[in-house]
Amino acid sequence: MSGTLEISNVSKTYDAGGENPVKALDKVSLTVNQGEFVSIIGPSGCGKSTLFNVIGGLIPDYTGEVTIDGHRIDGTHRDVGVVFQEESTFPWRTTLNNVAFPLEVQGMAREAREAKAREFIKLVGLEGFENHFPAQLSGGMKQRTAVARTLAYEPRIMLMDEPFGALDEQTRLLLGDKLLEIWSTLKQTMLLITHNITEAVQLSDRVVVMSYRPGRIKRVIDIELPRPRSSEVITTAEFGHYVGDIWNELREEASRGMADAEEKLAAR
Amino acid sequence: MNRKVKKILTSPTLAGLAALALFAGVLEIAVATDVIPQLIVARPSDTFMAFPELQKEMHLFGAFWETLGMCAAATGLALLIGIPFGYLMYRDDLIGRAYEGWLAAAFAAPTVLLYPLFLVMFGRSHMTLILMGFIPGAIPIAIQCRQGLLGVSPTLLNVGRSFNVTEREMFWKIQLPAAVPTIFTGIRIGVMYTLVNIVAIEYLIDFGGLGRIVSEMYFRFDSPGTYASILAVVAVSVLFYWCFGRVERWLRPV
Q1: Which of B254, B173, B231 is nearest to B23 (CA)?
Q2: Low-confidence residues of chain A: pLDDT under 70
Q3: What is the pLDDT of residues A115-161, one digit of tens each?
Q4: I want to staple A88 with a disulfide (CB 3.0 to 4.6 A). Which of A84, A161, A238, B31 is the partner?
Q5: Which residues from chain A sit within 8 angstroms of residue B180, using beta carbons?
Q6: Domain A5-79+157-267 is in which class?
Q7: CB-nearest partner of B155 from A86, A92, A104
Q8: CB-based contacts of B45: which residues, under 8 Å, 6+ apart?
């Protein structure tokens, strides 16, 4: 199963009626190799979510090119599975039916899709909650349901936009462990969008630091922490070194973002 | 105490019935002691005793089903027209913006006053009742249907897109279930106004089911009979709410 993602010179400008166009991305180029775990980190307003939407095929009008194994993708693509930051489980469906959703739209028979959905529910550690509705689950369990649903789609590339962003730090670390466990089992290409430095270092092979508006790649940092990895790694000095290194890159960008936001507020 | 018994004793239904019983008891005493004049309010016990007489003389049970049937027909028609029109207003923003304000204004107007027009067109008939029930029923359904579809979370739509669902699947598997609670708010409001209009027209034109009996009892100054027939109208309303509640729970279990 191959799945090399290539982003070449991707730019995106939001043109709100011609006045004050906002350049969200400026010639972003990045290659994510098959089976690699890459995180993109940057301050608010750096175009992370725009890049996520471009790769996920949810924004069609951009310049540049996104390819998978050399094939250009336009719009949503069978090889790209998406996990959203916001609550995205269907409230009217049980965990089982949520996870089985992509299989249902593919036309898979009920028995087969339920059996397959159960496999992925087990993989994310939600066994026993198959018949629970999202309202009966915790935030972390809902996000695991969303991850299982995307995994059931069996994409070659998993694209995740701060999937654990709304969760507390401890839960986030534990779910990071779970995600690494799943990744080592399925060997998919993973691209994680995050603003959390700890999460990025804990999970990734490489961390891509983006600049504040317009979004450009500022630096790519290889994370050479040993694998298999778990959240215990955060106690090591090496981990702290990576976190410090990334923060040094980010601090200036985050300050720019904050100053820009304050300036806009003052101008109102 | 057994858990099952405790659960029954603390159930909201039982609490509601207990409150009703308490209210009836207080009313019974208030009327019996002339705190409230009997000419204005009948004693609950007299109201209860009036049911067999109403059945014997006015065929209350048949009238109950007749009013229920008229409401069901008018609501069915309101759903049949209101939901597709609400969807059209959602799909075509121009139509939506053009008509939603007018519909809301029409809903606020007392459409019951249109009854002479329908009397001229359809006479004292069931058609008049159904159409007079349909008008205030369809409007909130159409408006809430549009609002419900507009309010579907963009994230849920993006989930659908990311799985390459067709437009048809997007509607049936994501948009409609997501909009169900809002649509049902419209249905509940619509059903209420449908029932009010139908009973009011039955009352005004002395035709049909329970409204006709309320009118008859009222003009006879038969307080227990009047309240008993009003209670039958309330029963229609309760039955309708219960049915739609079940359907909603079936479509959206949580």
Answers
A1: B231
A2: 1-2, 16-19
A3: 999 999 998 889 999 999 999 999 989 999 999 999 999 899 999 99
A4: A84
A5: 92
A6: alpha beta
A7: A86
A8: B28
